[in-house]
Write a structure and sequence with these properties.
Blueprint: E1 6-10, E2 12-18, E3 24-29, E4 37-45, E5 52-65, E6 68-73, E7 83-93, E8 97-100, H1 102-105, E9 108-110, H2 118-121, E10 131-133, E11 135-145, E12 148-156, E13 162-171, E14 197-199, E15 202-204, E16 216-220, H3 226-243, E17 248-252, E18 265-269, E19 278-283, E20 290-297, H4 307-325, H5 346-358, H6 365-376
Parallel strand pairs: 16-17, 16-18, 18-20
Antiparallel strand pairs: 1-2, 2-3, 3-8, 4-5, 4-13, 5-6, 6-7, 7-8, 9-10, 11-12, 12-13, 14-15, 19-20
Helix pairs in contact: 3-4, 3-6, 4-5
């Protein structure tokens, strides 16, 4: 077949060629490898309740090793050894460029997800490199967004089931306008955290959060039913009430854009799935700045009641999932409802959706105080902050808040 090269740019020219065997080579100037890159990976497993996942974001470099380009995770002076993640075959070479086969080199997906918390594994710097092996691999899509190389790979997992893997690879640049927020503990409130890393002889974990100096935009997928779209928008905008600032925006996703997306934080309708609605985030592993978010809504989350009740339910569900997308952890503390980040029985979610999210009332107290503290640097009085407990803390369980007759505040 005739090759039709596509010119991309990974800071400089990158050439993509599809040959008759359907293998894809990416031609990159040699000078581009003398720098750090950010690699972010997400994947979809067919036929699994855990049907979407993220892999831990990593800072990597590339080193020439004979006829392969070795991808190495760098740990930025933490004392941990660098680790080889992949050997990418070199298929061609000129004086200035290398043609590499990412499909052949990217033969596994690491299981450790991108978000974590110290209640998961403490503050240990130990890393988990267990992986899903990939067979029957084909690199079906290659594109770029500015300096970012975007790859979509199809293959089979260890059980022979289909898997789709999405890779975002771009030169690593720290966002100088983003201010990391260090978390000392999870005693009073909770955000997802970066993995522990040693900085100036101490272990540091940063809250995962978006930058607050520019709008945070969520895009609604085209297949969200029209009767629910405004309720979904209300769920997103709830956090503007909490922030007391219109930081979040809601738009309609362009035609063909679905989650995951390297361009948009997509809220995706998944009618065929059998699990609860979920959200996933990917961040800068050194600072905690959230760079990508995907939210998946399952219609079985709101099948009871009339249309008004279903819409109120969706307001609560979406506010909860957007809270996760902003970095917030669950808060399963008992007592009056002070947050949308708990799990509530259906009747209570409808009540919160109607009485708090759709109405002109203020956001719930915990949400309001915590999000403004972490995102905007507003003062936080821990003595008056509502109670908090989260997933893996002792004695903390969902559905314990807002028993019959209690109020929301």
């Amino acid at each position: 077949m005739t090759c039709k090269p596509i010119v991309l740019a990974l800071l400089a020219a990158v050439l993509i060629q599809l040959d008759s065997s359907a293998s894809v080579t990416v031609t990159i100037p040699k000078a581009e490898f003398d720098r750090e890159f950010l690699l972010q990976t997400s994947y979809q497993l067919a036929g699994s309740r855990e049907d979407f996942g993220t892999s831990r974001s990593r800072i990597v470099t590339f080193e020439r090793r004979g006829r392969a380009l070795r991808m190495v995770e760098t740990h930025r002076g933490t004392g941990l050894p660098d680790r080889v993640l992949a050997d990418v075959p070199i298929r061609g070479e000129t004086d200035r460029t290398l043609a590499v086969d990412f499909n052949a080199g990217f033969d596994r997906v690491f299981r450790q997800e991108d978000r974590t918390g110290e209640d998961y594994n403490g503050r240990s710097e130990d890393e988990d490199y267990s992986f899903i092996p990939l067979t029957d691999r084909r690199l079906l899509k290659v594109s770029r967004d500015g300096p970012m190389l975007v790859l979509e790979q199809h293959g089979r997992d260890e059980d022979g089931g289909p898997i789709v893997v999405h890779y975002y690879l771009r030169p690593y640049r720290h966002n100088g306008e983003f201010e990391p927020f260090e978390l000392d503990n999870l005693d009073d409130f909770g955000f997802y955290e970066t993995y522990p890393r040693r900085v100036s002889a101490r272990v540091v974990l940063y809250a995962m959060k978006f930058a607050s100096h520019r709008p945070i935009v969520f895009a609604l997928s085209a297949d969200i039913p029209a009767v629910y779209r405004e309720a979904v928008r209300d769920g997103v905008r709830y956090w503007n009430k909490a922030l007391e600032k219109p930081l979040l925006r809601v738009v309609d996703a362009p035609t063909g854009v679905t989650a995951p997306s390297h361009e948009y934080n997509v809220i995706q309708w998944i009618p065929e799935a059998d699990r609860a609605s979920t959200s996933h985030i990917q961040s800068d592993p050194l600072t905690g700045e959230i760079l990508h978010a995907s939210i998946f809504l399952r219609p079985q989350m709101s099948e009871e009641g009339n249309l008004d009740q279903r819409n109120d339910r969706w307001r609560s569900v979406v506010a909860h999932e957007v809270g996760h997308a902003l970095g917030l952890r669950h808060n399963f503390a008992q007592g009056p409802a002070t947050t949308v980040m708990n799990y509530f029985p259906y009747r209570e979610t409808v009540r919160i959706g109607n009485d708090v999210i759709e109405s002109g009332r203020d956001a719930l107290e915990y949400d309001r105080k915590v999000i403004r503290y972490v995102y905007l640097g507003k003062p936080l009085d821990r003595e008056t902050l509502p109670a908090f407990c989260t997933d893996h803390q002792a004695g903390c369980a969902p559905f314990s808040a807002l028993s019959a007759g209690q109020s929301v505040r």
